[in-house]
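Quick question, first post here. What does this chain look like in 3D?
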Amino acid sequence: MAPETSEVPIISVAIIEDQRETREGLSLLINNAHRFECRHVYASMEAALEGIGSNPPRVALVDIGLPGLSGIDGVRILRERYPSIAPVLLTVYKDDERIFQAVCAGACGYLLKKTPPARLLEAVREIAEGGAVMSPEVAIRVVELFRRTQSPEQFSAGLTPQELRLLKLLAEGHQNKTAASEMAISIHTVGFHLRSIYEKLHVHSRSEAVARALRDRLIP
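> Answer (accepted):
Ran it through. Tokens below.
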């Protein structure tokens, strides 16, 4: 009997970008990478919302400055219509206002277009596996932004000490595996805590959970 093989799943990606050169370059990068597939390419968010539901991708790379409906507004709609799609903003903008809006819209990542190709593919893989990624300079601004945000009162939202600790680790940039190591629990237990956190905070992604926790001062 032949031994069983564990095939690494193909990571399907959509690109929503109005600049043709950038759009074609990203498509070429993804299709030439091992176990990646560029499943959809759109020049506008309106076109994406109309067609992306047919054979939906796992990850969507979304530009912010799109003609018509913006990338941020589009991400909010994508999250509502297609919860299985993980949208990532890929942009030149790194100002506080757009970062804040993107996180609140439910983006699973915020990457700058100057991100090196190898790191971009690595980030897409992390997103596909349930992670959340940001360019380093963006992550620093997010932490600073939400720490400056004042909330009328601090409350736990019914979160357990374990869930609060996990949120703090996520805010510090840990992924599921490293958070599990820090907490001395299994990665499956981390997943269980995450689902509970999402339900209690009424959010749909790690980035939304961290943003809510920082905004409401659930974690220092």
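The chain has ten helices and six strands.
The beta strands are 11-16, 36-42, 59-62, 86-91, 109-112, 133-134.
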